[in-house]
Amino acid sequence: MSVKIVKKLSIWFEKNARDLPWRKTPDPYRVWLSEVMLQQTRVATVIPYFERFLQEFPAIGDLARADEERVFRLWAGLGYYSRARNLHRGAKAIAARLERNEGFPANRAEWLAIPGVGEYTAGAVCSIALGQREPIVDGNVVRVLSRLHSIATLDSKKTEIWNLARSLVETKNADPRVLNQALMELGAVVCTPKSPKCEACPVASECTGKSAPQAFPAPKAKKEWKHLRETRMVLVRSGDRGLEVLLQKNGAGAWREGLWDFPATLAPDETGLALLSEFDLSYVVTRHKVERTHRVFRCSRRTNEDKLRNAWFEVANPPGVPAPVRKALARLALLPQFEGSTSSARKSAKSSREFKHGTYVKRSPPDSKNSSR
């Protein structure tokens, strides 16, 4: 049966594979970069980020030599920022290997030794870039194999799915590069979570769960949303090139470590500043619904300014900031008090597709890793 499934999947993938930029030159660097970006993020969202990263960092050494601020600036808006931090750390580790003439990691064990690389990513790079018979299991593969074999219950490590994936990739005449991508592709475009297209599935005749596909694997109990409220102080001033805003860098161990945000409180010498405006924005991140109030003040300087943790930036040209801050900056440029002070920021705000009625919503995380490809 495995031989038949492998053959059918491979033929289907060769005919139906999407034209994605990381598939054009599947070397270890590009495959690794794409797999990190695709974790819990949709393909359409990843494509422009992937292309910008390669323009800025065409080789692993370029990424390793970049400072963290530059990496975060390019990553801003993609979310789950620990991925960017681990990617940067991993690039430095690989660059160190190259300096010692050890080359890129050449097998699963060597990839697992790279910071931020887990079982899935190691298997993806080894199979897709290196052609090695290593299995991969992401949300799409879990769904495909669970339905194919009518597996309702999985343990926390998905041991049964990993074993099935390994048996397929080790099948005689299986091409790991093609097979693993075929499994993920099938889950992304045919064997989808809510409306599977069983009539278009190349292995429908082998599928034992097609009569009730949504039962495999069994749906997880939905987690309750946590509701949070935040307040941020938005201090602005007129700069040489337009409106400037004060931002603080999140320290080690803080949520969104290394990224810039508005201060949560006013400094002692700012408590007498007049409130110019106030607006609310809401966002969703990792099962949290957050309501954030922005209190806007105009000032000339901050006496405790520290460029490492606390600095002024042009509203139109911020550093690496998370999506909530980017949206607040866009909203700030639209306030009547600052009309004309920064035309590029206003243009950005008006063109933002997510900004509606003072509220934007960040994508909810999918139920499992890479399941939204």
Description of the molecule:
This protein has 373 residues and is of the alpha+beta class. 40% of the residues lie in helices and 14% in strands. The protein is built from 14 helices and six strands. Strands 1, 2, 3, 4, 5 and 6 form a six-stranded mixed beta sheet that branches. Strand 4 (275-285) and strand 5 form a beta hairpin. Helix 1 crosses helix 12 (176-189), helix 3 (28-38) packs antiparallel against helix 9 (119-129) and helix 9 (119-129) packs across helix 12 (176-189). The two termini are 27 Å apart. Residues 342-372 have low confidence and may be disordered.
- Cα-atom Rg, whole angstroms? 24 Å
State the separation between the terminal residues, measured CA to CA.
27 Å
| Amount of helix | 25-40%
Shape: globular
Mean pLDDT: 87
Number of strands: 6
Biggest β-sheet: count, sense, barrel?
Answer: 6 strands, mixed
Low-pLDDT residue spans: 342-372
H/E element order: HHHHHHHHHHHHEEEEEEHH
Report the β-strand fraction as a percent range. Answer: 5-15%
How many helices does DSSP assign?
14
